[in-house]
Amino acid sequence: MQGKQTSAAAHATDVLRQRVVDGVYAPGARFPSATAISEEFGFDRGTAARILAQLRESGFIITKPGSGSHVRTFEPILRVFPNRLSTWRDGQAIQDADTGKRARVVEVNVGERPASEKVAASLGLAPGDPVLCRSRRFAVEDRPVQLADSFYLPEMVRATPIVYTDTGPGGVYARLAEIGHAPVCFAEHLRVRMPLPTEKAALDLPGGTPVIAIVRTAFDAEDRCVEVTEMILDSSVYELEYRADL
């Protein structure tokens, strides 16, 4: 009996989740209460409350005291590769291509750290050699959406604004261009996985939300790697588009 009830509750959760995905319950709309769910699916209110908790934990709804539950709303961020990487030529930040005029906050920390094995291999260093790291946490409309760590050869960038939190118009790529290392070729490797505890906390992710892990390498005209960037994206808010001329 217990197994049948558990299976029925899982089915009800899937039905309600699919209604959100299909737009039956629109973003920002009031979500059915525990009472309404119990009446529709024939559960007691305790089971219905647990279904609501599961949908809340997985990021489909939010609940505020006194106002009930609502479908979580957030306009997806469209990330177009490689088009977004040319914005520096117009003096803009790369993130401008993703979020436009939406309110954005960037937390930046800059400093040297030992190179990991993968970063060292890309930059032509030995593991543990010092690299300059620009670590960022991006929030859009007060919602954390991305973590990014970018790594550079210290001797290449030490005398440039890249070592400061504010790199000026066009960002890092404009500064690399000024010293003869403009990026002209990029490669990205993607995988989807569950977040590490530190990533989950930094992005304030609901339970069960995977992240998109992206490693981007940038090369100058002499095919020298001038940057390695490791990014962690909240998969629930990003839409990725890749373009190529054949």
UniProtKB/TrEMBL annotation:
One of its GO terms (molecular function) is DNA-binding transcription factor activity. One of its GO terms (biological process) is negative regulation of DNA-templated transcription. InterPro entries: Bact_HTH_transcr_reg, Chorismate_lyase_/UTRA_dom_sf, Tscrpt_reg_HTH_GntR, UTRA, WH-like_DNA-bd_sf, WH_DNA-bd_sf. It holds the Pfam family GntR. The lineage of its organism: Bacteria, Bacillati, Actinomycetota, Actinomycetes, Glycomycetales. Keywords: DNA-binding, Transcription, Transcription regulation. This is GntR family transcriptional regulator. Gene3D superfamilies: Chorismate lyase-like, Winged helix-like DNA-binding domain superfamily/Winged helix DNA-binding domain. Residues 6-74 form the HTH gntR-type domain.
